[in-house]
Amino acid sequence: MLVGQGLAVVGLLGLLYVDTGTPAVLVALLLVPMALGCALTVPPLTAAMLDAVPAERAGLAAGVLNAARQMAGALGIAVFGALVSGGFVAGMRLSLGISAALLVVTGLLSFRLAGPSASSA
């Protein structure tokens, strides 16, 4: 899980240096670690969340998780969209920087909550 969060941070930090003259192929290559990092992070987070509740509440927990994901996605699009609207490159850099910082924070929280054994997951 922490490896995934680290990869996503690396991808986001790489994207900070993209500007209007950056070739599309390079942008696509920089998106790979971010996408791979998310793919390595989300399933373990989902499993950890569902494992933390009693079996008889798993359906409720899954519903709450899905609702939280939907709300976070909508809020993220609204907030980061507003940041980008002022000027695409500057807004995108600010959005990517905030995203990278939030991933670092969640990585630290994941490590703290799960303990040192989480780094091997």
How are the elements arranged and paired?
Layout: H1 2-15, H2 24-51, H3 58-85, H4 88-114
Helix pairs in contact: 1-2, 1-4, 2-3, 3-4
InterPro entries: MFS_dom (IPR020846), MFS_trans_sf (IPR036259)
Protein name: Major facilitator superfamily (MFS) profile domain-containing protein
Subcellular location: Cell membrane
Provide a count of the helices.
4
Based on Cα principal axes, name the global outline.
Answer: globular
Instruction: Tell me the helix content.
Output: over 70%
Taking the alpha carbons of the first and last residues, their distance comes to 6 Å
Class computed from helices, strands and strand pairing? mainly alpha
- Estimated share of beta-strand residues: under 5%
Succession of helices and strands: HHHH
Number of DSSP E strands: 0
Average pLDDT metric: 86
Unreliably modeled segments: none
Main sheet characteristics: none
Radius of gyration: 16 Å
* Count of separate structural domains: 1
Brief rundown of the structure:
It is built from four helices and no strands. The chain is mostly helical and 121 residues long.
Task: Give an account of the 3D structure.
The termini are close together. Helix 1 (2-15) packs antiparallel against helix 4 (88-114), helix 2 (24-51) runs antiparallel to helix 3 (58-85) and helix 3 runs antiparallel to helix 4. The protein is globular, with a radius of gyration of 16 Å. The mean pLDDT is 86. The chain has 4 helices and no strands. The chain is mostly helical and 121 residues long. The longest helix is centred in the first third of the chain and has 28 residues, at 24-51. The protein has helices at residues 2-15, 24-51, 58-85, 88-114. It has one domain. Keywords: Membrane, Transmembrane, Transmembrane helix. It is found in: Cell membrane.
